[in-house]
Amino acid sequence: MKQIIFLFSLICFTASWAQNNRLVGKSFYNVDDNNLALKGYDPVSYFDGEPKKGNSEITYEYEGLIYNFIGKANLKAFKKSPEKFLPQYGGYCAFGLGAPSGKYGFNPQRFDVNPESYLIKNEKLYLFFKNPSFDAKSFWMAEPEKNMLQQADSIWKVTEDKYKGLKIPFGMSAKAPPETLQMAFLVGNWEVNYKQKRNDGTYSETKGRWYGQFTPDGMSIIDYWGKGMPVQGINVRTYDANLGKWSMTWVQNNTLGNKALIEGELVSEKMIFQTKYWELDPSGQYLNRITFYNVTNNSFQYHIDTSVDGGKNWIEKTTIIEASRSANH
């Protein structure tokens, strides 16, 4: 049921503005930028007892991913029965998904792997993260395997369901949480009408610019309050799949030079953020509650409610922004 609600809310919030141009497919698996799986290792070689790096000239594409092989015999075996040789969990670390929440300092999530750290169990291939300070396979072996398998299987099914049929805009990574689409409308250049509430309840108005783009890795969104805005600064917004919320950092670059840490989530087709920490007031009494709403492809509205008593009481719409997509890029 939660999965159905997630998909419905995502579709509702993005349908009116989205200009998606590519299908994710299985690019969210643990593959490189060219969709090469297993870091180039031959999937069949694991079942022969020794993982070996494949030959980049002996390759096969299966469901959009590229696999390398050490020879034509292994290629033939893979073509005959590919599912038999595929790594579990898209090639991510089995322990990362199956580990007890919090016990090892993290919640279940997708980790990269060392392709030579593996386990064959019930004719299935499991891969593990490994570096000089952490050997995930050894911790896997120390935990009740049945519990970890059940958890990892369940998490991976939910993950696959979220990405199934998903289309994403240019600049967004296929590995980014699908919920990243909730704020992807912000990417672009915006002309804004900025209104600030005066003490008498009336508003002062000014025109300004707001710019948004994906970060270079495509995992987050960075946006700038720029020219003409009475307050200028930078936001970095990242969807935290472990928290099930957005994490946002604001750094103001004029007047006060302060920073704030903010969390947000999609609520009834509105994106609502609230201050968690503000450098100006470490006591937590001064808070902002930020709402994006009426989002379309070419416009959105935004307002800030303010509290000076830690959220007990709120002054509504101390700031109002009406944004229109700029024709000038």
Give me the secondary-structure category: alpha+beta
Main sheet? Answer: 10 strands, antiparallel, barrel
Strand count:
18
Sketch the topology as an H/E string, one letter per element: HEHEEHHHEEEEHHEEEEEEEEEEE
How many independent structural domains? 2
What is the 3D shape? elongated
β-sheet strand percentage? 35-45%
Please state the average pLDDT score: 90
- Rg, nearest Å: 24 Å
Largest sheet strand order: 9-10-11-12-13-14-15-16-17-18
Which structural traits does this protein have?
329 residues, alpha+beta, Lipocalin, 2 domains, 10-stranded antiparallel beta barrel, two-stranded antiparallel ribbon, 7 helices, 19% helix
Structure description:
With 329 residues, this protein is α+β, with helices and mostly antiparallel strands. The chain has two domains: 153 residues, no CATH class; 146 residues, Calycin beta-barrel core domain (Lipocalin, Beta Barrel). The protein has seven helices and 18 strands. The strands form five sheets. Strands 9-10-11-12-13-14-15-16-17-18 form a ten-stranded antiparallel barrel. A two-stranded antiparallel ribbon has the order 1-8. The protein has a two-stranded antiparallel sheet with strand order 2-3. Strand 14 and strand 15 form a beta hairpin. It is elongated, with a radius of gyration of 24 Å.
